[in-house]
Design goal:
By secondary structure, this protein is an alpha/beta fold. The protein contains eight helices and five strands, in the order βαβαααβαβααβα.
C-alpha cells in the first residue's frame, strides 16, 4: 500500500471483526495491532503491562453504575507525568494507549482493532473507521466455535462482553459505541461473510483515497 492509511475497527463479540482485521492486514501487507498496543504503551510509559491489561475493563469505580458518567474522564490527550499520584490511573493508562495509536497512525499504514481507535483518530484524514456487527444468532454461532459453554451461559457472555465494550467506549469517548454516525462503514458480517467484508473495506479505500495502490 502506497499511502499511510489506518483502518480502525470496532466489533461486536462474535461478529468476526478481529478475523476480518487480520485478513485485511494480511491482504494489504501491513501490520495488525490489537493487544500489542498494551505492550507498546507499557514500554513507552514504563508502567507494568499488567496494569494495562487490567485497565481494559471499565474502571472499578463505575462498574456497578447503571449509567456511566463520562464527561470528566473522557479522553483529552493530556498525559499525567511520572511522580503524580494519578500516573497509573485508568485515565492515564488509556491516554498512553491513545498516544501509541496516534504514533502508529503517523508512522505506518496499519489495522487497529478496538482500543477506541476510531475515536482517537477521528480527525485524521488518513483513517477509515469500521464497525462490524451481526444478528445475535450469528454472534452465538461464531462464539460457540471458540467458547465451550452451555447456550445460556454463552448468551450471557456475549451480552456482557458487548455491554462492557459499549460502556468502556462511552466512558472514555463520550460517544455511543454502536452509533453509525461514528463510522465510515458499518458491515453486517452475517450477510457478507468475512472475505467480502475485507473486499468492501478495500473497495471503499480505493474510492476514497485517490491514487491508492493496494
Amino acid at each position: 500500500m502506497n499511502q499511510k492509511i489506518t483502518i480502525a475497527i470496532n466489533r461486536e463479540y462474535g461478529s468476526g471483526g478481529r478475523t476480518i482485521g487480520e485478513m485485511l492486514a494480511n491482504d494489504l501487507g501491513i501490520h495488525y495491532y490489537d493487544k500489542e498496543i498494551l505492550k507498546l504503551a507499557s514500554i513507552d510509559s514504563g508502567i507494568n503491562q499488567m496494569l494495562f491489561n487490567g485497565s481494559e475493563e471499565l474502571p472499578r469505580r463505575t462498574k456497578h453504575l447503571k449509567y456511566v458518567k463520562r464527561a470528566k474522564d473522557a479522553y483529552d490527550g493530556q498525559l499525567i507525568p511520572p511522580g503524580s499520584q494519578d500516573f497509573t490511573s485508568d485515565k492515564n493508562l488509556f491516554t498512553y494507549q491513545a498516544k501509541v495509536i496516534e504514533k502508529l497512525c503517523d508512522e505506518e499504514p496499519c489495522v487497529i482493532v478496538g482500543r477506541c481507535g476510531g475515536f482517537i483518530l477521528k480527525n485524521r484524514p488518513n483513517v477509515v473507521r469500521v464497525f462490524i456487527h451481526a444478528p445475535f444468532d450469528f454472534l452465538m454461532e461464531q462464539a460457540a466455535l471458540v467458547k465451550s459453554l452451555p447456550m445460556k451461559e454463552l448468551q450471557k457472555f456475549i451480552e456482557r462482553t458487548n455491554r462492557s465494550r459499549a460502556e468502556y467506549s462511552e466512558y472514555y469517548t463520550g460517544e455511543k459505541w454502536d452509533d453509525a454516525h461514528n463510522y465510515d462503514l458499518c458491515l453486517d458480517s452475517s450477510k457478507l461473510g468475512f472475505e467480502k467484508c475485507v473486499e468492501i473495506i478495500k473497495g471503499y479505500m480505493k474510492i476514497r483515497f485517490d491514487g491508492l495502490e493496494l
